[in-house]
Design brief:
Blueprint (H helix, E strand, L loop, with lengths): L3 H27 L3 E3 L5 E3 L9 H14 L4 H8 L3 H9 L15 H11 L3 H5 L12
Antiparallel strand pairs: 1-2
């Protein structure tokens, strides 16, 4: 028969393993979009809408700029948006840290760019819809 200290050690180990399993389950559930129904079933939640097509928006921005014969500096001056930000938006590459994702811009940034091109914001960002159902792109 095991001693009391061995039994206590086993209890601590089993308790620790149980805590680790719970912790791992929490990590796995929170690292995905997970929902749990009232009956306890957990599953991955998918978005009811499509992801925006930022690649198409980048290409559209470049086409608009080139069609007007504007340099990055010209668009920056006309929009009040920094040149580095415009380059990052158009290229899809991060401005400074290559390990971070590229900026997708803020609403204010895209608004200023639309104003510089003298077009509606909706017209500027329409390519975000890509070839998604219900889009006019």
């Amino acid at each position: 028969m095991p001693s009391a200290s061995v039994a206590a050690t086993r209890g601590v180990v089993l308790f620790t393993v149980s805590l680790l399993q719970v912790w791992l389950a929490i990590i796995v559930m929170t690292s995905h979009n997970v929902a749990q129904s009232s009956d306890g079933w957990a599953g991955v939640v998918t978005s009811p809408v499509a992801d925006p097509d930022f690649e198409a928006l980048r290409l559209h921005l470049a086409k608009l700029r080139h069609a007007r014969g504007w340099s990055y500096d010209e668009l920056a001056a006309r929009s009040g948006v920094g040149r580095a930000t415009i380059v990052a938006l158009e290229s899809g590459r991060p401005r400074r840290n290559p390990t971070k994702p590229a900026t997708t811009g803020t609403l204010a940034t895209w608004f200023r760019i639309a104003q510089a091109f003298e077009i509606d914001l909706g017209e500027l960002v329409r390519p975000l819809y890509g070839a998604h159902p219900g889009s006019s792109a």
